[in-house]
Design a protein that fits this description.
The protein is α+β, with helices and mostly antiparallel strands. Helix content is 27%, strand content 26%. The protein contains three helices and twelve strands. The strands form three sheets. A five-stranded antiparallel sheet has the order 4-5-6-7-10. The protein has a four-stranded antiparallel sheet with strand order 9-8-11-12. Helix 1 crosses helix 2. The longest helix is centred in the N-terminal third of the chain and has 55 residues. The protein is elongated.
Length: 257
Amino acid sequence: MKCPKCRKELRRSKKDPNYGLCDNCRKKYKWIEDDLEDDYEEDEDYDYIESKSSKRKKKKKKGKGMIIVFAVILIVLIIIGILAFLAKGSDKDKKGEKQENQNEQQNSPEDAEVPDSEATAYFQDDILKIEMATIKLTGFEVAPPNQEFGEEKSTLIITYDFTNDSDDVIQPSTAWIACFDATQETETTIDSLNVAMSPQDEKYTEMNNLSLTDVKPGATVQSVISYEINDTTKPITLKATQGVGGRELGEKIYNLQ
């Protein structure tokens, strides 16, 4: 028996043999013999019944999809913060240049002194100092994958104190991403580690919140950040720079074993 619309063969319904199903048109028709095909009678649309296995697959895909969405949102927020952080630094540089030019006009060339902002930036004894902020590393731990949230890699969790030395609000995570990069060496490459999902342990709850909060000028808060570990048997190098693309200030090695 063929479908009266697309002329493809109908398959007989197992649930009700009195009906034929068209997989192409998604219609069902009363089953009649070939010599009476002119009397086709169209019935209501039918839906395919999902198997339990397909439902489980969809549920798992949904969970992974939520993790991907969360990660994308976090990355977008960090990028926006970094752009704002760089814009503030650029404005300060312009103001400094303007003030410098005024001083040069007022003073003779022999008396003029050009301030060196790079000389005040450093990374020593676990303390990063740049013009706009101070970051002090306070601790770290290696956490196993959180399977409840779909994590597949262990994470390096780093805690730090953040002090806003600028005249405007700054988010700790923005300053951190602009100044630090975590890497791990293999036999042939040096890989930059991805920022991981915020640690879910209750002891990090307040630090997680403050990491994405605007901190007032002069204030100090405790914050946290975590990185995905590619190989738990190899050390991780945390490199510090004077902002994105800025001068390298130093590095710290984390031995995971």
